[in-house]
Fold:
Amino acid sequence: MIQTFAFYLFAVLVIASAVMVISSRNPVHSVLWLILAFFNAAGLMVIVGAEFIAMLLVIVYVGAVAVLFLFVVMMLDIDFAELRAGFIKNFPLGIAIALVLLAEMVLGLGAYKAGVIQLGEPSGLAAPLPGESNIESLGALLYGQYLFLFETAGIILLVAMIGAIVLTHREIRSPRGHQDISKQVSRRPEEATEMMRPEVGKGVKL
Amino acid sequence: MEFKASLALIAPEVVLSVSGLVLLLIAAWAGDKASRLVSILSVAAIVAAGALTAPILCAGAMGPDTIAFGGQMQVDAFSAFAKLLIYAAGIACLMVAPPFFERIGAMKAEYPILILFAVLGMGIMVSAGDLLTLYIGLELNSLAAYVLAAFVRSDQRSAEAGLKYFVLGALASGILLYGMSLTYGFAGTTSFDGIRAALSGDLSSGAMFGLIFVLAGLAFKISAVPFHMWTPDVYEGAPTPVTAFFASAPKVAALGLTMRVALEAFGGQTGAWQQVVIFLALASIVVGALGAIGQDNIKRLLAYSSINNVGFILIGLAAATPRGASAMLIYLAIYVAMTIGGFVAVLMLKDKDGEPVEQIAQIAGLSSHRKVLAACLAMVMFSLAGIPPLFGFWGKFMVFQAAVEAGMVPLAAIGIAASVIGAFYYLKVVKVMYFDEPAEVAVGKSDWAHQAVLLVSAIFISPLGYLLTGWLGDLADKAAAALFLVA
Structure:
């Protein structure tokens, strides 16, 4: 019962926030709606018993979207004073959304504890899971049977990192040399300037 | 217990990766001042890996004792033969690089480390027993290669070569992955033995698509026609020591991988891939020979020459016999020596300011002022053309013999005819060096490391190489036998 209720809640929120992503005028709002859509999709994954994919959705997508969000903020010309103007007015709405998210979390967790939704009858042909949950099963495979490939894939990523550094890193040599601000500030006019009274027709001493 | 045995089998890979990580730390703290030290230590690591590999080849290891990680790695005599060739090429490229990069101030401690990781990737490629291992080894090698191609950042051609190689390499990886996923879909497994068992009888069209896509992806890596377009540009643009590396070690690795896929995974489906390989072989020989004629840059010329040679090597694969596989391995050994010799000779061509000389017109009359260098270069050219007293002839002879024994007389005949066309441009270089008015451009001194490497490869491809035929043939037979275990 609780699963069915949770499913409809998550599904409706995914669709609603996906619609808001494309219909909201402010790009920053779009990104926030997108994050809400991902959270709810992760909730859907939890109630079918795929916790690992749920975690990936939150870590990878929400993490990636946070970076995307930063790019949007940096690249678009957004007037933040105007955005902040409605803060007090929208405060109750923000609290309401936070409460909905909290309720969702409780509901999702409750649905997960009550047991997963069976999407179909298992055929019995699949290999038995080596671990208790699917996170354990994946871990057992990655660090057991596929350990060699997993570690080698790590070396590939290391090579990619070395490559990026080799191709872009430059030794920084400032053309102006070192700048010492306290030294600049503590300079007195008497040390820096000199009064001269050059004689006419003799030129100046430099 | 099984895990311990697997780890013992991949000891060379463990040595290479651990020393790569340690050297990376040295490079990070000591900076580019330590690049000579890192180069020397990298050579030592590769020698150590080679010392661990050599006994496997001498013992002719094959069968269940050589399988590590449940079939993901096959550390048999075949992989040992290919690995030793790769290690030799890697050491040569590490030795010739520092003088070249130091002159233009581009030597970095990361260069030997990237070579080390590329060598590690290639060792994994030739030991692959599973499509996943194949892909991971290939990507490790390719990723290091992309960076190496663009290593001299200040040179626009080098950056262009790196970008071109990267984009086309990514495309080839995509094609390869698509083929692998189709193969997995139709065979239900990624291990070579499993694919062989699952795909017996007539090949369904889906599995056929998978096979063709995998072969196309691999053909790109060995630069066989029609997937060769990138080769001349990348070889010309990349720094010469890197080009020497590209033309030698990755060719061995990718060809070894192609042999494993064709003869092990699809060993029961010879009819399905034989036509494709015959086409690749003939097209590479003809396009390689004709394309080289108009070139005036010696690095581009050698690039076409490597396309041409890959065609000859593929003739051995088209035969699909243990004899053909053994001939391929012999040809590969000779090819590595010729290529390294050729590119090191190009490295030694410098004008009086030490700037590299790459135009063929500029080496006119080289024999009058750099006698030994001209003689070595001429020997490499004659050997690449397959003219009898030199060792290059032996490789071609073995390959054609295998093809004729497998009943492929027309293939051998066309190959021999095309090698006559190829002889034209090799001889043109010799003619320019010996009979043209001296241009007196390439007069610069060369480094001792270059001279040493050139000397070793020149001795190997000289008629003295024939003393090795018995020993080399024996090793190659042992290695090839490991591929034909199931059949």
